[in-house]
């Protein structure tokens, strides 16, 4: 850290930056290879003048494809088909349609928008929950304010959590909010594990409060082998991989390289995070760093 102007945080789950922060004597810019920045919003960085950027723009379409796959997997009982095949059991049954079903996307940023577009394309009715309410949105139709989440949950067949992790969104799916959902509804979490109170979700699934869940992120990662979520028949577990497509690592590196050249030439940086909000606001002003002549040491 001593003498470093720029820090590229490749391991977005690491807590090493907070531990090393006292040695940062000239740091000006931190870039993280993820869309989420909650691990970096410790008080010293958040309250400093150091600029934080993320990797928005890399994962949107891949996560949207993953969510579409989960919606179809639930509606068409693909897990049941695979299980029956393994047992060599001819198990004919009816499955659900997705056309006309309702999806509520909690998080109206770029990833939420990509999810909304993809679900609309296959015939779902989509609404969003975000920081600011609005009608006539090109992707969501209607975006409801976060404070109305519990009012909107009873209307949704699929609830997709993709919001940034903030004080407002932490634990937003708990015993109270889960109880407002349809008994036939499924919860899909591709946002942050802390969006969901795990013990409350387990009880809701065991008690038939909701019909199922697909979880790509968890309060504790890796998910402990002792977790009941692994063996629940109405749960799909994946290891924090919804955005990770073939070629994602080079794409992350290319985004940083582009931003580094911008910093060196004094051009505006992409994806500047509002450290008070915890994400990149739509239409946020960009930040200009050093010029080409400025001395730079990247860590």
UniProtKB/TrEMBL annotation:
Alphabetical keyword list: NAD, Oxidoreductase
Pfam families for the chain: 2-Hacid_dh, 2-Hacid_dh_C
Family that this chain belongs to: Belongs to the D-isomer specific 2-hydroxyacid dehydrogenase family.
Keyword Magnesium on entry: no
Keyword Nucleus assigned: no
Gene3D superfamilies documented for this protein: NAD(P)-binding Rossmann-like Domain
InterPro entries listed in its UniProt record: D-isomer_2_OHA_DH_cat_dom, D-isomer_DH_CS, D-isomer_DH_NAD-bd, NAD(P)-bd_dom_sf
Protein name: 2-hydroxyacid dehydrogenase
Domain D-isomer specific 2-hydroxyacid dehydrogenase catalytic stretches: 23-273
Any GO MF annotation of the entry: NAD binding
Span of domain D-isomer specific 2-hydroxyacid dehydrogenase NAD-binding: 68-242
Organism name: Gandjariella thermophila
